[in-house]
């Protein structure tokens, strides 16, 4: 039996993104950029995932983060309200 590791990792990414969408209050609670990068749940994304966050410097309450693996993404926008989107970039 052959295992397609890329498909397995894409599934892992999508499952983690779904968990965050379903219960953002369990994941999104940061006071600084450093807090975001220290979040343990980032390790639940597949190896090779990348993430970036902006807007948390100097105690800012609003921020934007993007987490990506291959062509799959999860974007988190915290302004007046929390908006979370996940999907696949067009190729």
Domain tally: 1
Note the run of SSEs as H and E.
Answer: HHEEEE
Rounded average pLDDT = 90
The helix-and-strand class reads: alpha+beta
> How far is the first residue's CA from the last residue's CA?
29 Å
Q: Tell me the overall shape.
A: elongated
* Quaternary class: single chain
How much beta, percentage-wise?
A: 25-35%
Describe the main β-sheet briefly: 4 strands, antiparallel
Unreliable residue runs: none
As a percent range, the share of helical residues equals 25-40%
Task: Give, in spatial order, the strands making up the sheet with the most strands.
Answer: 1-2-3-4
Helix count, DSSP H or I runs of 4 or more residues: 2
Radius of gyration: 14 Å
Number of strands: 4
How does this model look, in words?
This protein has one domain. 26% of the residues lie in helices and 29% in strands. It has 2 helices and 4 strands. It is elongated and about 50 Å long. The model has no long low-confidence stretch (mean pLDDT 90).
Outline the fold blueprint.
Elements: H1 5-22, H2 33-38, E1 50-54, E2 63-69, E3 72-78, E4 82-88
Antiparallel strand pairs: 1-2, 2-3, 3-4
Fill in the keyword field for this structure.
91 residues; alpha+beta; four-stranded antiparallel sheet; 2 helices; 4 strands; 26% helix; 29% strand; elongated
How would you summarize this macromolecular structure in one to three sentences?
The protein has 91 residues and is of the alpha+beta class. The protein has 2 helices and 4 strands; from the N terminus they run H-H-E-E-E-E.
